[in-house]
Design goal:
This protein has 144 residues and is of the alpha/beta class. The chain has three helices and six strands; from the N terminus they run H-E-E-E-H-E-H-E-E.
């Protein structure tokens, strides 16, 4: 059974559905999961909260990023993803479709490929869809 906390603001962790990840991994062949823990990492190499992926170097990597969601934190991760892509990392992000936010306009719109996810994802083995729509944001690792 999934905890009722899973779809509330009491948590900022949303475990990526395995089948959803598998399709993207087949396309991108991820090397690093930039925001994970031992229970939800999608790659053999991953950064935990203790490692602080926001302070790590991702240059030259093919990165999966399903960051913590929440006011203030998602924007920090999207800024990092954008900046690392400018240093050569390919970064694929799964985030809520928050097209009205500053981070979306500053670091996504016009700077990345955006794929809208049809329907609502079922995170962490939940039988219910998330209370928000999702997008996949792709930065292709172009150096400046």
């Amino acid at each position: 059974m999934v905890s009722p906390v899973m779809f509330s603001s009491a948590t900022d962790k949303w475990a990526t559905p395995p089948d959803f990840f598998a399709k993207l991994d087949a396309e991108f062949n991820f090397m690093l999961d930039a925001a994970a823990d031992a229970t939800n990492a999608k790659c053999a190499r991953y950064f935990t909260a203790e490692d602080d992926g926001l302070t790590q170097d991702w240059a030259g990597e093919t990165v999966w990023l399903n960051p913590p969601y929440g006011r203030g934190i998602t924007g920090k991760w999207m800024r990092k993803a954008y900046e690392e892509s400018r240093k050569g990392a390919t970064v694929v992000c799964l985030v809520p479709a928050r097209t009205d936010t500053r981070w979306f306009h500053d670091y996504v719109l016009g700077k990345s490929e955006i794929r809208f996810v049809k329907g609502r994802l079922k995170f962490g083995g939940s039988k219910s869809g998330a209370p928000f729509p999702s997008i996949v944001v792709i930065y292709r690792g172009e150096t400046i």
